[in-house]
Amino acid sequence: MERFFLEHNVMKDRDSDELGGRVNSDSEASDDEEEITDQVHSVADPTGPWAQKAVNSETWGKPTRGYHGGKARNFSSANTGPKGVINDYKAHKRYQKEEVSDLLDDTFLAQYSQMRMQQMQDTARSRTVFGELEYISPEQFVALTSSTSSKEGSQSSGDTSMLVHLYHPENYACGLLNTQLELLARKLVHVKFAAIVAKEADASIEMRDLPVMLVFCGQQQETIIDVAQRLDGEFTLERVEAFVHQQLGL
Q1: pLDDT digits (tens, 9 = 90+) for 40-90
Q2: Can the peptide bond before residue 211 be classed as cis, meaning omega within 30 degrees of 0?
Q3: For the chain, which residues make up each domain, given as ranges?
Q4: What ranges does the record list as Acidic residues composition bias (predicted)?
Q5: Alpha helices by DSSP H, the chain
Q6: Which fold has domain 133-248?
Q7: Complete DSSP assignment for 34-102
Q8: Distance CA 130, CA 125 (A)
């Protein structure tokens, strides 16, 4: 027992250097621990070196450069943190793709519209303009009914629409119809309007069947005998024009 207490007192009285120089005293050890603690910060510690910088809500997520053309988009975000930044980046890339898509769509539509306009203008210039009701002879009637080509022969029969009115000079309904056809010919200038005395075109046609209309549309030909019935006896410009549009599919 005496030996134990003797050794204990000796260990207590030994210099710190003899103990390996690890600590000088209990107070020094405590100070060292506090110093080390001060140097180590938790990730969650808002005062540590990993503290996230405050986000400026006025500038965060907005593009740093302007876009010329296209539709303007107001891209903004209030997301923070790594996941928020990633989501904002993906959303920003989607907006950029939409900007490019809008520019491509606008350019394509402008080019397509210009091309279609040019095609329609070329087609209009290539079509023959008639613009009048032509009173024809039997020889002209044969030529027209055998081929619906234009006056200059520059168009094929499939390109020309034509109406031939078989009339009688003393028939009142025929006179009214010719008057309206003369007006329509000035309006529908790409349609060939012609009129011939019925007996000169076909001797078998009866007076009571008049007026008779021959309709040529593309390669199709139709003979309409009941013109007065289809017009309900109203030979007005509106009724005749609607009838012509229906027959030619205009």
Answers
A1: 444 445 555 555 556 566 666 665 555 454 455 555 555 556 666 677 777
A2: yes
A3: 2-39, 52-126, 133-248
A4: 28-37
A5: 2-13, 26-39, 81-126, 138-146, 172-187, 198-201, 227-230, 237-248
A6: Glutaredoxin (3.40.30)
A7: HHHHHH---TT-TTSTTPPPPP-TTTTT--SS---SS----------HHHHHHHHHHHHHHHHHHHHHH
A8: 13
